[in-house]
Amino acid sequence: MQQITNCIMKLPDLVTAPLKYFSKGSPSPVVPIKSTIITECSPLWKLAVKQGPFVRLAGLSGAAAVILGAYGAHKAYPKDRVNELKPIYETGNKFHFYHSLALVALPLCRFPKVTAALFITGTFLFSGACYYHAFTGENKFNRFAPVGGTLLIIGWLSMVF
């Protein structure tokens, strides 16, 4: 909140600074900028290791999403329900894959463990309910899909705050 207040307080300066510059006739003095030269770079994988298990978890989840996607593409659905079950399976798999990719960004979050818990639990509930329904044709766990979807939404919002 303080940063927003500071930005708002500087708005008048942003508007009047160009007017002052052009009315002087001569440009303002050049101020030297102190820069730091990076001589040695760390490999990206070392940065990922320092940030916790999130990248590894994303890799495992992504691999599971690809395996389940391949299985769902070749699964023999019942002839009378193929138009109903296959789109449900594909939706669950898309959400699983997208949120596996989102796990890679967790080290950039302010509260990565909270966001990870929301994403993992939400993906498990939402995609798990979709997978189960598509595999078995039963509606036993369908009530968990909206809970999982809500957790995924809260997970995305937790990346903002």
Provide structural commentary.
The protein is mainly alpha-helical. The protein has one domain. Helices cover 71% and strands 0% of the residues. The chain is elongated. It starts with a helix and ends with a helix.
In brief, what are we looking at here?
The chain is an all-alpha fold and 161 residues long. It has helices at 2-24, 44-50, 54-74, 82-103, 112-136, 144-160.
Low-pLDDT stretches are none
What overall form do the CA principal axes indicate? elongated
- The count of domains is 1
The proportion of strand residues reads under 5%
**Average of per-residue pLDDT values:** 85
Straight-line N-to-C gap:
12 Å
Write the element-wise H/E pattern from the N-terminal end onward: HHHHHH
Structural class estimated from helices and strands: mainly alpha
Number of helical segments with 4 or more residues: 6
**Percent helix:** over 70%
Largest β-sheet summary: none
Radius of gyration: 25 Å
Number of strands: 0
